[in-house]
Amino acid sequence: MNPTRTYRILLRKEDGNVYTVIVPALPGCITYGETIEEAIEMAKEAIEGYIEVLKEEGEPVPDDSETFEYSLQLSA
Asked: Domain limits of the chain?
């Protein structure tokens, strides 16, 4: 059975109502969708494919299970 892994995804709205998705724990794992829901589904597929390649190459599979996130607002 495969372990459950946690991944943080970042969605950014682009011109033309497209959402870019970045997976910080997996360098270069970027996808997009025309809606937030589609972008999230595309991220799941991209993550699964990325993990599959890592396993095939015998590389460790990172995740965000030990990552903590905070948002700070600063006046500069």
From this structure: 1-76
- Mean pLDDT of residues grouped by 10 in the chain (76 residues)? 87 93 96 96 97 96 88 89
- Contact assessment for residue 12 and residue 19, using Cβ atoms and an 8 Å cutoff: yes
CA quadruple 72, 64, 31, 41: dihedral sign: negative
Sequence-distant (6+) residues with CB within 8 A of 63 are: 5, 6, 7, 25
pLDDT value of position 3: 80
Q: In 1-76, at which residue ranges do the beta strands (DSSP E only) sit?
A: 10-14, 18-22, 30-33
This prediction has a pTM of 0.85
Determine how β-strand 30-33 pairs with β-strand 10-14: unpaired
Are the C-beta atoms of residues 40 and 21 closer than 8 Å to each other?
yes
Please give the CATH architecture assigned to the domain spanning 1-76.
2-Layer Sandwich (3.30)
